[in-house]
Amino acid sequence: MSVKVSGLYKVYGAQKAVNGISFEAFTGRVLGFLGPNGAGKSTTMKILTGYLPQTAGNASVCGFDVNTHTLDAKKHIGYLPESNPLYPEMYVKEFLAFICDIHQIKNPKTRIQEVIQLTGLGPEQHKKIGQLSKGYKQRVGLAQAIIHDPQVLILDEPTSGLDPNQLIEIRKLIKDLGKTKTVILSTHIMQEVEAVCDDVIIINKGEIVAHDRLETLLQKHHTQNIEPIFVALTKEN
Amino acid sequence: MLTIFIKELNSYFSSLVAYITIVIFLTAMGLFLWIFPDTSILDYGYAGLDSLFNIAPYLFMFLIPAITMRSLAEEKKEGTFELLATKPLTDWQIVLGKYLAALALVIIAILPTVIYYYTVYHLGAVEGNVDAGAVIGSYIGLILLGAAYVAIGVFCSSITKNQIIAFAIAVFLSFFAFSGFDAISQLLALQKIDDVIINLGINHHYQAISRGVLDTRDLLYFLSLITVFLVLTKTILGGRKW
Description:
The complex is a heterodimer of chains A (about 240) and B (about 240). Chain A has helices at about 40-50, 70-75, 90-100, 110-120, 135-145, 165-180, 190-195, 215-220, 225-235, and strands at about 5-10, 15-25, 30-35, 55-60, 65, 75-80, 150-155, 180-185, 200-205, 205-215.
């Protein structure tokens, strides 16, 4: 298993953001991370990427503990944060070259061209990031996440702000990447889960309320769609 | 670290920050040294660069915080710090890369003033009648002073998301570190330990180096000051509490 989380807790002051969750994600599968806003999805992802320290529990990526072997773990992760932070004053290629440099990639030029092809940045590749529309910025974010060919991809709402055509392209890209890598993605779009995910975790108030293969989950609840399951499991009582 | 260093230096030179700081620094220096009668070398009549080295600490007090204020505050505000922090980089590499880039910009701004030395050198009543040792010492002192201010500035940039606040605190801390201790030492109640207090200030050590004597105590003072602020910066970034 390339991502392993066990008994993970994160407490902010008095608030428990993540309340003892455990799961594993496997190579060649796309894991959908669902939950209402504030359920702890982003926090879990931030702990996995070594950005936030957890209060208790363990998380490891490709066998490297994210606390004790942080750098090794980070080398194997491609991460697209929720807010998709980028440097607006940099050119697309300049930015990608900077990321290549951080990862010490050999032949950065060819790799940058490959990634631009993959993410469909071609027509906008000579612009400054600040001049791009939201959808293209999202692609730049995705490009920087996959540029070093990481084993594990952690994508926090990767398709927000994309138009329907772009949605289809990016989902296809994620699905293709998921064939050879471990992908964990969070989203609020239920059709997206049905379109790209192999496994599903539904998380509510910091706890896992459902974790199964997509088909199994649908069968268990005798339904065709994930939406009623999501509503039933996470609605406020 | 080199990656961050180059990226930062690039962003200084691709925005107006670098050019404006350098131009303001050199213009102000030129005015004080050659035009304003109170400090002009021509009116003063002695071939020396003393007025440059007396004014530079005060100019730097404003210019250096202006350079450093965005270095970490902006990354935090825009969220790009999350991008850097989740890459295979240590916090030290990020802090040092940013620190050294700002310091490099300061040194680049100081470099052209060597022309003033050349000019004064030829203006001397007997050509070359300049205390070269003192000038070299003063340059080393000025660079160390700049390095200390940059450390203070980067630290102030790490404690807030707001660049203006980072600037204001950095100006105050730089000013206090430079001459605040001298002023405090003059308080009547502290007469007995005034030597100790003066020793805490940058000014005392800056003046000592300016005389052309590079004492290890002064060097150690600057290095510890810089280290303290960089360690503080790294600690604050590591806390991720913003």
